[in-house]
Amino acid sequence: MNRRALIAAPLALAACSGPPVAEAQVDIPPLKSVAPFPLGVAAMTEQFDDSAWGEVVGTHFDRVTPEWEMKAEAFAREDGTYDFSRADRLVGRATGRGLSVFGHTIVWYTQAPAFLQRLTGDRRAFEEAYGRYVRTVAGRYRGRVVAWDVVNEPVLDDGQGYRTRHAFHEALGIDYVRLAFEHAREADPAAVLFLNDYNLEQLPKKRRDFLRLAESLLKAGAPLGGLGTQTHVPADLPVGAMDETLRDLASLGLPIHVSEVDISANRARGRHEPERVAAEIVDAFQGLPERLRWGVTIWGARHGDSWLNRGEEKNPLRPDRPLLFDDQGRPTSTAAAFVRALTT
Ligand code: XIL
């Protein structure tokens, strides 16, 4: 058992059973002042009107990833026109506060615009409209985003290869991935272009298929600039899983973005050790060669901001505690563990 696990064990025993205990209050330095890499946070426009949220994000983070506003459902109209007002508003609020913006996400199997779905039976028409779609989105934020998740979640969970049952693959086959990167690069020559997916630390076969896709993109000369591993993990993530995952992902020599971190108590089936998991995420990331450490993004500021406490993910009987700050904006023991890992 590694030293992190030894440190966490007593903490876990104290917290692993019964109703959530009041979280220990801790004091930490600004996270971005101790992180030797850009530290991002997921954001939605209305949160910028919440001064308590703004205080946490302004103090601790360098960058925001829009949780929703830069997804097709937020800007692509049925008739093929666009309403970028929501995304523009978020970009404006973020840059107005000196925060950089990570674009998320242009092509996601769950959100193929209706005007493209209608064309899946005509490859030529689809390909032409698809290219125009990618160039429109990437081109609009040229110079205003530092990077894009160009394609999100292209791989199946079950180790059976790529997702195929969606409009992009139905129309173009797996070529939809390469084409998205090529059109995004044509529209934005500077943004770092990422391939992003989840469960890569929990499903080795999925990670294998993800790497296979990335390698095929590189061989085809696609402008793949980095790999994103979402890192939505349970608070009992097996010891060593993060280190093995990031080492594996680093094998292609591309920068790594740990892109959507949350450490779920509710998804944990075993011993609840968020402090150990947070420390392992940092250790694994810091174990990468510096040129591959692109950044870490936490998928929300305060527990109550987490998608795991909203909609279908929400457990009304037991709010999750997956983030680094509590609902009063105070740093948690997980945040303290995150800082310890950064500074020791
Ligand atoms: C989630 C957002 O957090 C929610 O607010 C939204 O309702 C659904 O999408 N992987 C992703 C993210 O890449 O875009 C998802 O974000 C979470 C899973």
3D architecture notes:
The structure is a single chain. The chain is of the alpha/beta class and 344 residues long. The chain has a single domain, classed as Alpha-Beta Barrel (TIM Barrel), CATH 3.20.20.80. Helix content is 39%, strand content 15%. It has an 8-stranded parallel barrel with strand order 1-2-3-4-5-6-8-9, surrounded by 4 helices. Strand 7 (232-234), helix 11 and strand 8 form a beta-alpha-beta unit. The chain binds (3S,4R)-3-hydroxy-2-oxopiperidin-4-yl beta-D-xylopyranoside (XIL). (3S,4R)-3-hydroxy-2-oxopiperidin-4-yl beta-D-xylopyranoside binds at residues 67-68, 152, 198, 230, 260, 307, 311.
Number of DSSP E strands: 9
Mean pLDDT: 94
Say what the CATH topology is.
TIM Barrel
Spatial strand arrangement across the major sheet: 1-2-3-4-5-6-8-9
Which structural class is indicated by helix and strand composition? alpha/beta
Low-confidence stretches: 1-19
Number of helices: 13
CATH superfamily: Glycosidases
